[in-house]
Amino acid sequence: MGLAAVFTAVVIIESMEYFGLDRGIRVFERDLHRLWKPSGTYGHALGILAAGLVGGLFLYPLRKYHSKMRRRGELGRWLKIHILMGILAPVLATLHAGYKFNGLVALSYWSMILVALSGFIGRFIYIQVPRRRDGEGLSLRHAQQAFEEELSSGGEAFRRLYDKILDSDLDRKLQRSGFMGILSLTALQLSLPFRIRRSLRGFNGGEDLSVGMRRQFRRRLRQILLMKYRLSFYSRAERLLHYWHVFHKPFSYTMVLVLLIHIAVTLYMGYRWVL
Which residues, including other chains, have CB under 8 Å from residue 216's CB and lie 6 or more apart? Predict the structure, then answer.
């Protein structure tokens, strides 16, 4: 993943000499134009890479739903690769197109952008559903059981601090309709480290803890409170994931369909990539 990020950064930096020029004079810089135009040596290669990444996006749902792929690596790792490809594909497609989007292929490009943006939202909702280490989702019963075991193992002082921080109005906030529940959950998660630090000041039962123990105490408390937030958000997250798929899939299919038409027309017109 690091290599992919470095490669993309190098490509962007190298391409700026060409794309930094006004569009009207790019064609006069013949050597650069021959390399970076959409049908050029580098430009065409970037288009091929972007198309390959778009095709690779469908490996994740294949791993997730196809019975013969279930044991091929952890689902969480497949998802990370899926997200990486979903980020890199629009970047490379943008460079391939030379920051110029028109015609039928623009429909594929903007569908790709919508898929990528909705992917960030889907990722946030996805991680709110409690999961095993391999990335598979836990049922509500098993998630609740894991939470109770983790909380009870912390001791009495831990339980008192947990009760002190927990918002008594939590369930109502996280069951708000639409994306208001997501906004409430985001605000709670972002404010959690500050609330824990504030609650630990002068806490009766935590004064004997060393600096290292207090840090470990905070880390574990944050983990347990996040588990509680996600449990309270569980049913909402399941419904939102369903609605998210309804939005995400049509744009994915549109992106691929128009991309295939674009590739077919390109081949028909005689464009070939040759180093």
Answer: none
pLDDT score of 116 more than 70: yes
The rounded distance, in Å, linking the Cα atoms of 121 and 143 is: 22
> Phi and psi at residue 137, in whole multiples of 5°?
-70, 145
Cα 120 to Cα 143: distance, rounded to the nearest angstrom: 24
Place of tokens 């470095």: 6
Tokens representing 198 are 């504030």
Taking the C-alpha atoms of residue 114 and residue 90, their distance in angstroms, rounded to an integer, is 10
**Alpha helix locations (H) across the chain?**
2-19, 23-26, 30-36, 41-56, 59-65, 75-97, 105-127, 140-152, 156-165, 170-174, 180-200, 211-232, 234-268
Q: Are 54 and 256 in contact (CB under 8 A)?
A: yes
140-154 pLDDT, tens per residue?
Answer: 566 666 667 766 766
Instruction: Determine what percent of the chain is predicted with pLDDT higher than 70.
Output: 72
Alpha-carbon torsion 69, 72, 75, 77, what sign?
negative
